[in-house]
Specification:
Layout lengths: L4 E5 L2 E6 L2 H23 L2 E5 L3 H5 L8 H4 L5 E5 L1 E3 L9 H8 L20 H17 L4 E2 L6 E2 L2 E5 L23 E4 L9 E4 L1 H4 L4 E6 L5 H8 L10 H4 L6 E7 H4 L3 H4 L4
Parallel strand pairs: 2-12, 3-4, 3-8, 8-11, 11-12
Antiparallel strand pairs: 1-2, 5-10, 6-7, 9-10
Bound molecules: 6-phosphogluconic acid.
Length: 268
């Protein structure tokens, strides 16, 4: 029996693939499908991106058939986290997404909501939240039924080997933030130190959250984020992603999934 495949667990749906190439293809299918459903149902597709390897995997969306079949004019693009650097800096998540995807598909430029890079971290977080509040009022971004938070059609996250998602790092006090939608940190354990990030209430109010993880260096942390390991991992950021009224899907390659119960038990 192939150890790849889908597994429904209490921590969401696990989709495990042979290679990161396969992850990229399936991820593109999944995003294109959600875009079609959201545009049909709401007239918009509000998607939030992160940084890291997930963005190059999304590059498949520039290729056929997606470049022609996706209704790019209905996409509204946001960032679940951003580094406080200028937009043309190598560390900018906006630049990464622009180079890998956004500049290669026919998006409407005014639908791309990048973070203001001329402000301090605190000011930029406040401004981004203000912008989101306006878009929620007019329902370009949906509104959650369970909180006063925005309800993104899709939030895409990667996971660091320490278990961070977006710029929510283990043991950081922003994990406790309940009121703000967008917050900032100035002491990121990974450079650059200043970052903006969606808070957990916003991530957990989305209709769909996908966490994309590849490579063996993430296997042990992924095991802690997904399996019951007999010790308290409830404060691991990746384990705190739990969209109450939405769907959580993990896109994994075999290397990242190698220590998961769901993966190992198909061997027996
Ligand atoms: O801006 C960031 O740093 C990211 O949003 C961050 O959360 C990233 O997604 C993970 O660190 C995984 O990155 P990799 O997949 O490249 O390891």
């Amino acid at each position: 029996m192939s150890r790849s495949g889908c597994h429904q667990t209490e921590r969401g749906e696990l989709r495990i693939y042979e290679s990161s190439d396969e992850v990229a293809t399936e991820l593109a299918d999944y995003i294109a499908e959600l875009s079609e459903v959201s545009v049909k149902e709401r007239g918009f597709f509000a998607i939030a991106l992160s940084g890291g390897s997930l963005i190059s995997l999304m590059g498949k969306l520039c290729e056929a058939p997606y470049n022609k079949t996706v209704d790019w004019s209905k996409w509204y693009i946001f960032w679940a986290d951003e580094r406080v650097v200028s937009k043309n800096h190598a560390d900018s998540n906006y630049k990464l997404a622009k180079d890998c995807l956004l500049s290669k598909v026919p998006l409407i430029p005014s639908h791309v909501y990048s973070i203001n890079d001329s402000l301090s971290a605190e000011e930029a977080a406040g401004e981004y939240e203000f912008v989101l509040r306006q878009l929620v009022k007019v329902r370009t971004v949906g509104v959650s039924e369970i909180s006063d938070c925005p309800k993104f059609d899709l939030i895409l996250l990667g996971m660091g080997s320490d278990g961070h998602v977006a710029s929510l790092f283990p043991n950081h006090m922003v994990l406790e933030e309940k009121d703000e939608w967008v917050t900032f940190i100035t002491d990121s354990p990974e450079p650059p130190p200043e970052r903006l990030t969606f808070t957990l209430p916003v991530i957990n109010s989305a209709s769909n959250v996908a966490i994309v993880v590849t490579g063996s260096s993430k296997a042990e942390t992924l095991h802690l984020a997904i399996d019951d390991v007999g010790r308290d991992c409830s404060k691991l950021p990746a384990r705190m992603v739990n969209p109450g009224n939405g769907n959580l899907v993990w896109f994994l390659d075999k290397l990242a999934a190698s220590k998961l119960e769901a993966f190992k038990c198909t061997e027996k």
